[in-house]
Every structure is written in structure tokens, then in C-alpha cells.
Specification:
Chains A, B: Its EC number is 3.5.4.28, 3.5.4.31. Two copies of one chain form a homodimer. By secondary structure, chain A is α/β, with parallel strands linked by helices. Chain A contains 15 helices and 17 strands. In chain A, helix 2 runs parallel beside helix 3, helix 4 packs parallel to helix 6 and helix 13 packs across helix 14. The interface between A and B is large, with 68 and 68 residues.
Chain lengths: 432, 432
């Protein structure tokens, strides 16, 4: 464990919207000791190393609240297609040919990309998730992992549930607590009520949260209406699934009463604007959610429907999407930054993340602001949302450890991972 | 003048959608000699230099068909505000304090950012445009420049028209033809019919085109309806302004009959998706324009309403915006790339640009594809639209001259420009 002193412009993402143009952060081990103007480190704080990041902005690491990391292997495999043929003819047949080892390399590729673009925590749902756990441990990042579960039939459902339980036993709190395990029933339209209830009971026994897709498309709404005569969220409430930690991804189609339900049960929303746009899913009612005090985080969804995992692009798209259909005042820059940091931490149930303040975990990133697209420097939050790109991130620290420095990844063998991912994706495509 | 041989993956943006994974381009002076697989350079072609860009994709330089370069000085000065207070309380008072020298530095900053993100040609409209011309000449880029003209009163209108004529005399075809001068009457709602007709006559005398804002907002439609009982485009037609080269920026609110008018008069459309989203202007009917064979290019608009000048972000937003309100099949990756290259060249009236093919101008860029967000390489066009960011551009060649190599700008003093722009923007803000 090391002690670092960082000198930079600092945007700690506090509620007071502090900003320190000549700031200083002291880190001891995995925790932040102090944040403020130059000279605020405690007397006698003796760093092992001083990181001089003048001209960089340091902010909390970004939290990606909904993704399917290993789907990087499908990046560019199929685009610009209607949803059902895309899934049935392209995505599902490809996924059928993926081995656990493929999941490991696809997840590793995602982690390279995430680190490079400033994401320090991801909330993931997929198959062979223990392979993703392995990649996360090696990368040094933070993750909430769940086994995506669909009960086509009772046996398949139960098998996947056993895998999720096994995942929990093996990896919950692994990597000095960097990994948390959640349960991942896929969606109301792919899981029966009986199965969801069993999942919920098992999750409750272990004190684990649930990560589920919800109200993503109009067709989902129609399906649930036809099947149960109600909406996906109301049906979940009727089944007794709500309560405890729940991350609901997408939440595009919700009426006022349902927004109240989200608030009542403290359901966290993972908002995925680029996926919702690229797949023509629709526009989630984010400003109304925020007005009600519902916790909202940002997510990229999988690389097959985005197609990158760049949370800076996601922030910009989140704001643009709302403004397009509302007013220029919707989702202001600082609000969007909050969603990608503090909001994400709340959704993920991580109490000491999402802000830079004493006692919080030392998860942070630096963005090189000495570039033409960041001048003049009238507003740092505005520049981070409307001008910054993933590639502008130069330093990444997670749990007090430097994972990227001056644009070099220190924990992952990027060259090897890119080559392996390419080879495996080609093999899978050839087998489809 | 030099002879270069470039080795790279090559996406020439031809109608046949060619792609050369191990390609080769021969350049002699300002022109492309050959494009194809390795070994297609003419026998006896003797390059001064071989540029080995293996693992880079080389494509035509991007064409930004609508911007106000010097507005980089307003980047982040005012955001997330309703349109009219934003203009009246922030943008216009700021612009009132800008000196010609400020315009020069603001334009230079824009050119740094454009080169860094792969834009080789811009279509610009602003005040003190001779300062922008000066910056363009120094940068080595290509530009179509026009003096933005508003006739608040007859005298102001005529003075600005004289400036535009002077600009034409001094700079048209300057820099080995890299600069073209157009005429820039601001918009139907800010110019009288009489003034527009005078401008059109002067432009015709000089053989110059016209660059104008058109049908950008619902409020513009209402104003013109109230004033003239018709739509902005129909009014322009009635005034006899259409015909000859016209670049119409925005074109958000057009009915079917107006789309037919655009087609009939060969009006080129400059589509600005990010500005249209950020200012809540609306969504232009791009797929319907393309179906009718209307020429459509992409533009960033000014940095105050975007807030960057990154055409890669603009491409992604163009596609996402259409898909959100239409279907996932709208604005496919290759169509968007065409808009940003070949479509832009057509709109700009530049006949030998926008594609890499023998005899065309040697304007091209390289994108470093050896990065995690470009793996696996299933589709180069998809990756360029959905994953690439301005910062991935490493090489820029305009008119056969290397302006950026390995991420270093060779013609502009970037450090000095950033510092000057910062200083001047602060001074202006303090004077408002």
C-alpha cells in the first residue's frame, strides 16, 4: 500500500460543486486522506510519491452501471439492423459459440477499453461470469458481477441460478472487496414469476442485490401487458421482487405511477442513452426521475449496441438526448457528471465511492486538459461533458493503486488481449 | 512538392465501398496518383518518403460544412440555457467585444482542434473573416469562408456586403486554391428580401456561392410565417435567391414540397446534429433528403453550441439522432461516413475531394486502429462511426502536405495558440 500526493485541478463532485484549480489530494493505501487546495494535506503526511498532474483535471473514476463486458467480441459484428433479426440472426447465434475462455478475453478487452476511458467500476451481467471475475481481479478494477439468467425451461433456469450462487460464494468481496456479486435475472419477459421469486429469495439469503433489464422497449411493454395485463414494473411489484438493492437497466417506458414505485422501493436506474438511441428503443424520463430523487446512474450497455464503452461519450449523449426532446436546460453538465459518478455509486450501493472526499475509496482519474478542445477553460464540468473523450484520460487509480499512468496500462497486457480478442471473435464468427 | 507512398488499411469512400486491408496510396504533389492494394503504385513511382501506417486506417479528410471557427473563444462560456437568453445575454454581448485579432486566435484554436480530429476542410461563416482566412493560410487546411451578414439596417448590411466582396477579391483561390470565398447572408429572418437579392447579384457577378442558415428552429418558421405568410425556403425561392451554389445550414423544418425545392435547385444541406440536439432545435429529415438525392454534408456548427469540433462525434450523433426517432436501419455507418466526406465535398462544390482516387486532391487522414476500442475489426466503417474519436487521428495530409504527423501539428504553434485563446477569452468575458 502506498501514499500518494496528487497535484492537479480537482473536481471532487461534491454536492457543493467545489473546484480546486490548484488542488491537492492525499491518498494513504486504498483511502483518500484529504482533498482541497494546495497545502491541505495533513501536517506530517509523507508521500511515497508525488504525482504532478498540473494541467490535468482529477475527478472520481466513472461508474458504468450496466454493461455486458464480454460482448466487446461482437463489436461491429452486426449493426444498423432491426432489433429482432439482429438478436435472432446475429447476436444469439454468436453467443452460442462463445466458450468460457472467450468470455475471459472479451472481458479483458472491455477492461482495457474501460480503464483507458476512465471507468473504474462496472456493473456487469453475462454468461460464464466467473471468467469476467477473473479478468476483473487481474485488471485491478472494481465490479459488480451477475450471472445473466433466463428460464427458457425450469432446468436451465435452476442451473443458471446455481451458477450465480456459486459465483457469489467464490467471488463476493474478492480482490480486497473490489468485486461484489449480484443476481442477474435477465428481464420480466424472459423470466417467470416463480423463477424471479426463487432468485429473490436466494439473493436475500446471501444479502445480494439484483440486476435486471426493465421496460426497455415498447415490445416488452406489449408482451407483459398481453401476458399479465399489467406493466413490467407493476408485475415485479406484484411478484414481491422489489425491495432490497435492485439495479433496473433502461427503464425507458414508465408512467408517473411507476416512477413513484421506483422511488418507494429505492430501485436504482441504469440509464443507457446510446444503446437506447442506436436500437431505437426510446428515451428514458431521466429529468423526471431526478426530480423525484430516484437514483440514476449511467451505463454503456454492451459493445454490440453502442459500440464503445466510453462513458464520456455516454454523458454527452445523455444530455443531448434529453435536450433534443425537452429543453436546453435539461440534464445540465454537472447533473450528468453526477450521474456518471455519485449517482452510479448510489445505484451500485457503494457508499464510499463517486466523490473525492476524505475517507472515501481512492478511485480517481486524470484528464489531460492541455489540448485545444479544452480551451478556453470557462467551465470544467461543461468541458468534461461536452468536449472530453475517453482518450483524454491519462491516469487511473483504483483502490489506491495506479492502473494507468501517462496512458500506459500497468495491469493488463493490452497487445496480447487485442490480438487474442481478434482471433477468437473471428473463430466464433466462422463457426456461426 | 513531395512524392509520398503511404502503406495502411485504406477506406477510399468510393461508391463501390472498396476497402484495402493492406493498401497503398501514391501521392505526387497535391494529387493522388494511385489507390489500391500493396503494389498498385505505378511502375517507376519514386517516392521521396514512404509513410508506414500499418494498423492505421487511411480515409479522406473530413469536411465540416458549417461552422463559426472563432466561436471556440465562447466554448463553455454559457451552456444549458434557453435559446433566446443564451443568445441575447451571453453570445451577442461576448461577440460585441471581440476584436479582429481575437477572431484570428479563435480561428487558429479551431484549426488546431480540427486538424487534431481529422477535419481538412471547413465551411465557415463569421465576422472579421479575413482574420480566419489568415489563420487558414498558415494552417495549411482548406476552407470556404464567408462574411456573416445581417442587415439590421441598410448601412450595416451594405458595409458587411462590401467586406464580403473585399474578402473575395483578396482571398478567393488563395493558398494554391485552398481558400474559396462564399457570401454569407445570415438567415431569412435576419436579412431583408431586398438585401438578399443584392447579395445574390454580387455573388453571381463573382461566380461565388451562398452560405445561409435555413429553417433551424420552430421560432424561425413562425417568424417568417408571420412576416411573409410562407416558409423560409419558399420565401427564398420567391425572392429569386435559389439557383447556383447554396449551402443551407440546419434545414430542420422542411415539408415534402420544400425537400423537392432543395432537390430542384441543387441546394446543399449542412446537417448539424449535435447543435440541433444541444439547443433543442429538432431533427432534420436526413434519410428522406438522402432518398431524394439531395446533397447532405455534416457540420459541427460553432463551439458554443456543440461544444467541440470533432466530426467523429458528429457522425455518431447524426446516426443516433435519426435512429432514436426512426429505426435502427436509418443512417447506416457507411452513409454517415459518406456525408462527412463525399457528401460534404458535393455540398461545398469541391469536385476533386471527398474520396481517395487517382486525380483527386491529396487530402487524407490516418486513424490509429491499434487500440482496444477498435477490436475485433469486423467492420471498419462501423468502428469509424460508432467507436472512433477525434483523438484517434494521427496523420493529416492536405493538398499533398503533411500537416500533422504522429499526433504532432507541424504548421501551427499549438501551445501559443491555446495560451493566447485563453487570455483573450478571459479578457472578453471581463469586458462584457
Amino acid at each position: 500500500m502506498s501514499r500518494y500526493l496528487i497535484r492537479a485541478m480537482i473536481l471532487p463532485m461534491t454536492d457543493a460543486q467545489d473546484f480546486y484549480p490548484q488542488g491537492e489530494i492525499a491518498i494513504d493505501g486504498d483511502r483518500i486522506v484529504s482533498v482541497g487546495e494546495r497545502g491541505t494535506a495533513p501536517a506530517g503526511f509523507n508521500p511515497d510519491r508525488v504525482l504532478d498532474l498540473t494541467n490535468h483535471v482529477v475527478m472520481p473514476g466513472l461508474i458504468n452501471t450496466h454493461t455486458h463486458a464480454a460482448m466487446t467480441l461482437l463489436r461491429g459484428y452486426a449493426d444498423d439492423m432491426p432489433l429482432m433479426p439482429w438478436l435472432q440472426e446475429k447476436v444469439w447465434p454468436f453467443e452460442d459459440k462463445m466458450t468460457p475462455e472467450d468470455i475471459y478475453w472479451g472481458s479483458s478487452l472491455a477492461l482495457c477499453e474501460m480503464l483507458r476511458s476512465g471507468t473504474t467500476t462496472m456493473t456487469d451481467m453475462y454468461i460464464s461470469e466467473e471468467e469476467t471475475a477473473r479478468a476483473v481481479l487481474e485488471s485491478g478494477t472494481r465490479a459488480l458481477l451477475s450471472r445473466g439468467m433466463i428460464d427458457h425451461n425450469k432446468e436451465a433456469g435452476n442451473r443458471s441460478l446455481q451458477e450465480n450462487i456459486e459465483l457469489f460464494r467464490k467471488y463476493h468481496n474478492a480482490g480486497d472487496g473490489r468485486i461484489k456479486i449480484m443476481f442477474g435475472p435477465h428481464a420480466p419477459y424472459t423470466c417467470s414469476g416463480e423463477f424471479l421469486l426463487t432468485v429473490k429469495q436466494e439473493a436475500d439469503k446471501l444479502g445480494a442485490g439484483i440486476h435486471i433489464h426493465l421496460a426497455e422497449t415498447e415490445s416488452e411493454i406489449a408482451t407483459i401487458r398481453e401476458r399479465y395485463g399489467t406493466t413490467p414494473l407493476c408485475w415485479l411489484e406484484q411478484q414481491g421482487i422489489l425491495g432490497g438493492q435492485i439495479i433496473a437497466a433502461h427503464c425507458v417506458y414508465l408512467n408517473d405511477a411507476e416512477l413513484d414505485i421506483l422511488k418507494r422501493y429505492n430501485v436504482g436506474v441504469a440509464h443507457n442513452p446510446e444503446s437506447n438511441m442506436k436500437l431505437s428503443s426510446g428515451t428514458a424520463r431521466i429529468p423526471e426521475m431526478l426530480k423525484r430523487g430516484i437514483a440514476v446512474g449511467l451505463g454503456t450497455d454492451g459493445a454490440s449496441s453502442n459500440n464503445d464503452l466510453d462513458m464520456f461519450g455516454e454523458m454527452r449523449s445523455a444530455s443531448f438526448q434529453q435536450k433534443l426532446l425537452g429543453s436546453p436546460e435539461d440534464l445540465k453538465a454537472y447533473e450528468v457528471l453526477k450521474m456518471a459518478t455519485d449517482g452510479g455509486a448510489t445505484v451500485a450501493g457503494l457508499k464510499d465511492l463517486g466523490k473525492l472526499q476524505p475517507g472515501y475509496k481512492a478511485d480517481m482519474i486524470s484528464i489531460d486538459f492541455d489540448q485545444p478542445h479544452f480551451y478556453p477553460r470557462f467551465s470544467i464540468p461543461s468541458h468534461l461533458v461536452y468536449c472530453a473523450r475517453g482518450g483524454d484520460v491519462r491516469t487511473v487509480i483504483v483502490d489506491g493503486k495506479i492502473l494507468m499512468e501517462d496512458g500506459r496500462l500497468l495491469t493488463l497486457d493490452e497487445q496480447k488481449i487485442c490480438r487474442e480478442a481478434e482471433k477468437r471473435a473471428r473463430r466464433i464468427a466462422s463457426e456461426v
